[in-house]
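Continuing the series of single-chain predictions for the mutant panel. This is the parent chain; the variants come on the following pages.
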Amino acid sequence: MNLRTAPAEQPEATGNPWVVGRLANGVPRLRLLCLPHAGGSAGSFAPWRPVLPAGFELVPVELPGHGTRAGLPYAASVAELVAGLLDALAGELAVPYAVFGHSFGALLALEFALEAGRRGLPAPAAVLVSAARPPQLAATRERPQTDAELTAWLRATGGLPAELLRHTEYVGRVLATIRSDLGLVERHVWPAPRPLPFPLHVLGGRADPVVSPAELEEWAEYEGPDLTITVHPGGHFYLFEQPGVVLTGIAATLTE
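Parent structure:
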């Protein structure tokens, strides 16, 4: 699909609690649904707002129990979460769209796109998976167990700025949310490697201590109509270190 020739309608304000911080740069030709990392929120994509490419609509997704929806219970399973996502966002899929997921969100993005196909909904123009080990490797790495270990791991990966550590109540909520998200990954039976019915674009950071460039290459087992693997300078949160460079690359990939 040539997205330059497929203009979308201007988005309307729907009051959908699953979408927080929608932004379009001009008349959007592509909706970019963005799913955050474990413990993250729709607000995690705020650094992308000033550098959003022309013709793109940013649609950050707010998961239950995260960000502005922190008072809601966490999803009990990936299947429940993906079903909720499709129920809430089905109306967003009537125009050309792509799904971007970072880390934990990358695995949700894959399941979201596959479930959309099972429901007979429009397929994405592409799925973009960022800083994530592929499903066959997703739950095979031991994660930190204690609060101290998890906090140290977050600091080492750039997931928790040191200045926030003095806010103990906030840190406690973050740790609980991350544990819930990582628990979903560990309990879910992920799809086995197979060709996908939509293009897959893999992104990551060259110095990522969580997901190595070699592990990103394992996504090749899911090759479908198109597959690209792009490694940027930076760590696990490379996409917010140089957001303009990353989004320029995404725009070039999706509008070729």
